[in-house]
Structures are given as C-alpha cells and as structure tokens.
Amino acid sequence: MDELRRQGLDKMKEVYGWDVPDIPGDYFKYTIDHLFGTIWTRPELSMRDRRLLLLGAVSALGLDEILEIQTGAALKNGELTEAELREVAIFITHYVGWPLGQRVNKHVEMAVAKQNEAKRTKESAGD
C-alpha cells in the first residue's frame, strides 16, 4: 500500500471513527487518495473547521445520511459539544430554511441521544 493510500485511510478513520478496508477500484481510489489523503490533510483548516463547513454544505443539500454520520462523528471526536451542535442547527436553519433546518436539528438530537445512551450503557457496565 502506498503512502497516500495509508494517509487517506488513516484520515478517514480519524474523520469518521471507524476502520475502512482498502477496496479496489477508481471511485474508492479518488475518495481515499484524493479527498482524504490530500484535501482533508491540508494544514490550513482544523478538523473542527472542516466539520463545520461540511455540516453547512450537507445541511443545505438535505443529505440526511451524511448529516447523521457527521453529527455523530463531531460529538464522538469531541470537535463539537452538544450545545455547539444545537447552536449549529439553530444558526443554519436561518440560512437553509426551516424544512432543511429541522432535519439538521433532528440529526443533532439523534446524535446527542445516541451518545448519551452509550455513556449510560458504559457507566452501568462499570457498576
């Protein structure tokens, strides 16, 4: 595996929080090598900056699956707090409109609930 592919796979794991297998094919190559190996690793923006920009873009496009992934990853990685994600939903609603904004809010609340449930499960397992 070349260095760019390894760098891309490592960055994708950092962004999403899970291991991604190395899959053959051009589509995967461009996603991993270019997007994650080259674009996500540029030093000018922090992970938090990139996450906020991505949340804005996918919110405007109404991409529910990506909103679900991104809100959960932002919480899991500690890039945004529950309060900050809720503020993102309020702020972005005023730019993308209420129908799309309520979808953002829905995914924020789902991510918060999922994280809180995971914390409760972990705490009760430790008892």
From TrEMBL:
InterPro entries: 4CMD/NDH-1_regulator, AhpD-like, CMD-like. Residues 26-99 form the Carboxymuconolactone decarboxylase-like domain. This is 4-carboxymuconolactone decarboxylase. It comes from Mycobacteroides immunogenum. Pfam families: CMD. GO terms for molecular function: peroxiredoxin activity. Gene3D superfamilies: AhpD-like.
